[in-house]
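User: What would this chain look like folded?
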Amino acid sequence: MLGMKPLVAKKERPKKEGGRKIPDVAALFGFLVALLILFSVTSPYFFQWANFRDILVALAVTGIACVPCTFLMIGGQVDLSVGSSAAVSGMIAAKLVGHHGIIVGVGLAMLFGVALGLFNGFIVTVIGVNSLITTLGGLATLYGFALLIGNGQTLGVQKFDTLGTAQPLGIPLPVVIFVLISVAGIITLRQTVYGRSLYAIGSNPNAARVVGIRTRRIIFITFIASGMASALAGLILCSQLSQGDPNAAKGLELQVVTAIVLGGASLAGGRGSMLGTILGLLVIGVLNNGLNLLNVQPFWQSVAQGFMLIIAVSFDQIRQKLNQQRR
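Assistant: Here's the prediction, encoded as structure tokens.
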């Protein structure tokens, strides 16, 4: 009709996304803050620098092993041999340092870590055995080997306390080493082709291979890094205790996996970050320390860690199912 304007459909403006995306580690950070407040109120000794230093020293060994293990989990792999590898490395150092010197003892212990990484990498990437089975077998075998080195006994070592107890500028050396390795890990994951390749491999290994990523080589190198880190952790433990103890690192693998999964990494690969792993470590460390200050039996620490691991893995599975439904 004359005088009437034709009806024209109005173009809908794209809706702006409200606010910034909440980081994946926000919930974990909130839980850590809640623990800090809880233990600060319940224990007068918790909120002191000496206590926080003890927490960091206790976490340093686990944290060193966590860095390459985070890389592996992002790439869809897992290393359960870190605890037994640390035990063997510590026993090797204790056996050799007294008779052949620190350089020989430390050098051969680190060489063992490299050899273990080569072995795990070869079995997983070349033979094609699942990393869980490979490293689970290594866990049992290496603990037995650690016992054989000392005939089931601890081995005392002298003049090897610097690595574990030195405090440059008032900061424990293990903490300094952990911080440096963590910073290197953060930079590697965020800024390098190697780090981006790990995410691609974990998300879809076949697609990563098609676009030219050398998946086997990258996973192989990461297993070597994990072997070296676990050997270094064993050396620090040996230095702190002034003895090689085949049981010193028992349960280390559980703490490592718990921290990484708590930090948001997925057992299926493709997810995870060093920041998340560090927060997971701090949650475990603060929880254990707080329970000690409250005179809770040490057995409950293992119960708490196991419970946290189950919750974290369950949450990861629920998240994966929700993502599949949205697709």
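The longest strand covers residues 155-156. If you want, I can go into more detail on any region.
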